[in-house]
Amino acid sequence: MKRLFLIAISCLIGLPALSQEENREADSLRHAFGRQQVQPATQRASKYADTLDTGNPAVKVVLYDNGTYRFVKDPSVVADESVFSENWDTRSVNPYREQPDDLPDRFSIWIVDSLDSYACPNKTTPRSLFGYRHGRRHQGIDLPYPTGTPVPAAFDGKVRISDYVGGYGNLVVIRHANGLETFYGHLSKIYVQEDEWVNAGTIIGLGGSTGRSTGPHLHFETRYKGFAFDPEWLIDFESGTLRHRLFTLKRKYLSPASNYVPEDEQEEIDIIEGDTREAEEAKAKAEAERKALAAAQYHTIRQGDTLGKLAVRYHTSVRAICRLNKGLTERTVLQLGRKIRVK
User: Which of 164, 162, 237 minimizes the C-alpha distance to 202?
Assistant: First the structure.
């Protein structure tokens, strides 16, 4: 039991490397852990007492006056990661230049791990959903939010934008360590500044109706590398829960017509477990191609050579030789001195 606990902690907070057998167990734990739903963080009644270091400089132990404790990430270390400097622009809503085809068809992202918290922006029934609205793209969802109601940050992160931005009105954009960004629009007041680190649940402003708005509500967006996707893929706003810790983001979700649709849980499990299998298959294929190139044979055309004679000489076929040489066909006139691949 103690060994299993150590493996779980190692795979979740990044302690020293594990053995091959332990890595397999860690992968199994990681997948099971990643499929868990997450309840919103609750406010602690106890007060902070002290902070202790751990073997990982990015992880601290916070002690409370009631004798409890928890592991947390050190913002001063996490905020130095490259994700918080690359494409960092405090004015542009979308500072990225990627195209949809630059992204894989699907890939997994940790939304929260064992050290992160999550706070639901508002437990409610969303209105004005993701997609097209009156012929215009609506890149998030609208949550009912009376003016003056405190708005919490959904996840830990660093504030990239804190300003009045066109139709968004008063807008806060927070970038998170996993590369995701969350948008909070139409605020009546903003309580955070650009480049400020916030934790999940930190009050970043108050609900309102600034910008292009027909009444008090919170416009909430989730984006990856500038591409918006339906926040309901991540959050069940009716219950307030985060749907899963490990999220499989599919490129098709980035389409403005891709609203959240409940999917079969086994399909998501297969996708997560398939990521490792596909990586291993790609590695094996690359190795086979490398070996094939290393074993390749070439022939320099001499007087009297024909594809038929070369096929007999190298124990292959004319069709196989043509497949190995771009533009070469059975009717091609062989030029003296040309080097072609025969195996």
Answer: 162
Interval 198-248: pLDDT, tens: 989 899 999 999 999 889 999 999 999 999 999 999 999 999 999 888 888
Q: What is the mean pLDDT of residues 265-285?
A: 61
What CA–CA distances, in Å, run from 91 to 193, 209, 295?
13, 21, 55
Domains 100-262 and 298-341 share a fold: no
Please say if the pLDDT value at position 10 is more than 80: no
Topology classification of domain 298-341: Membrane-bound Lytic Murein Transglycosylase D; Chain A (3.10.350)
Domain ranges of the chain: 100-262, 298-341
Structure tokens that stand for 29 in this block: 């734990």
Domain 100-262 has what CATH class?
A: mainly beta
Q: DSSP readout, 11-50? A: HHHT-SPPPHHHHHHHHHHHHHHHT--BPPP---SS-EEE
